[in-house]
Specification:
Keywords: ATP-binding, Nucleotide-binding, Transport. One of its GO terms (molecular function) is ATP binding. It holds the Pfam family ABC_tran. This is ABC transporter ATP-binding protein. Helix content is about 35%, strand content about 25%. It is of the alpha/beta class. The chain has one domain: P-loop containing nucleotide triphosphate hydrolases (Rossmann fold, 3-Layer(aba) Sandwich), CATH 3.40.50. The protein has a 6-stranded mixed sheet, with helices on both faces. It has a 4-stranded antiparallel sheet with strand order 2-1-4-5, with helices on one face. Strand 9 and strand 10 form a beta hairpin. It is globular, with a radius of gyration of 18 Å. It binds adenosine-5'-triphosphate.
Length: about 250
């Protein structure tokens, strides 16, 4: 079987998309310092869908933010592809995030004065790239946004705004998509649709997707679930079903 290539880049599926090596993240200093990440090492390979789970405060968002270059580490190394983030200037870091990473956050960060379509294509426009109309149509159709493209965010429901945010992340076919609770505000049907399109982008485009979620059903769409507790990766499941994820979470939350 020929494996798909990563969408925008020539490196093959299976190569590291993001790597953390012995990462420690402290917030604050001295006696009151919080050790949000405690010597975490993990490799996320291209063309794989990873879900990060764990109890509240276990370090999930911190790990994702460090892997995405949105936060710096106290010690250790983070690489996107083969680029080490700690060596980058702010300008190069911003360019790397813009060119190679798509984000879906729970607070959708849509621009209120732009239409849904303008929001979806904004990162592509900012990067000065051309929209792949066929892919954009597929994304918009799959997410059920065709009739909503001329609406501004205030004229959309929470679920529709979330779908616009997902479409925006997918539209530029970035090398890596990070989602922080990307289905957090959605009903189970819409949540299933959003996870379905993320899954499809992995299967058909060789996209690499990393999400933080509390929802075992959402996590069951992933190839791999990483479990964090007290800032450490304590377990992982491959090709998980929702029940197995739920059971593992129950033991961690005790
Ligand atoms: N900016 C910050 N300043 C100080 N402490 C922080 C900061 N951000 C996170 N923390 C602490 O770091 C730890 C890990 O937080 P993080 O948000 O990564 O956890 P999480 O697993 O994503 O939690 P949740 O599921 O509740 O969102 C927590 O103890 C949190 O209080």
């Amino acid at each position: 079987m020929t494996r798909p290539m990563s969408p925008m880049h020539t490196t093959e599926v299976g190569a590291p998309a993001a790597t953390a090596i012995d990462v420690v993240k402290l917030y604050g200093s001295g006696e009151t310092a919080v050790r949000a990440l405690d010597h975490v090492s993990v490799e996320l390979v291209r063309g794989e869908f990873t879900a990060i789970m764990g109890p509240s405060g276990s370090g999930k968002s911190t790990l994702m933010h460090c892997l995405a270059g949105l936060d710096t580490v106290t010690s250790g190394v983070v690489l996107i592809g083969d680029v080490e983030l700690s060596g980058l200037s702010d300008k190069r870091m911003t360019a790397l995030r813009r060119d190679r990473i798509g984000f879906v956050f729970q607070a959708f960060n849509l621009v209120p004065t732009l239409t849904a379509l303008e929001n979806i294509t904004l990162p592509i426009d900012i990067a000065g790239r051309k929209v792949d109309q066929q892919w954009l149509d597929t994304v918009v159709m799959t997410l059920g946004l065709r009739d909503r493209l001329a609406h501004r965010p205030s004229e959309l429901s929470g679920g529709q705004q979330q779908r616009v945010a997902v479409a925006r992340a997918l539209a530029s076919k970035p090398e890596l998509i990070f989602g922080d609770e990307p289905t957090g505000n959605l009903d189970s049907r819409t949540s299933g649709e959003v996870m379905g399109i993320l899954r499809e982008s992995v299967d058909t485009l060789g996209q690499t997707v990393v999400i933080v979620t509390h929802d075992p059903r959402a996590a069951s769409y992933a190839d791999r679930v990483l479990f964090l507790a007290d800032g450490k990766i304590v377990d992982e499941l491959r090709s998980p079903d929702a029940d197995a994820v739920f059971d593992r979470m129950k033991t961690l939350e005790k």
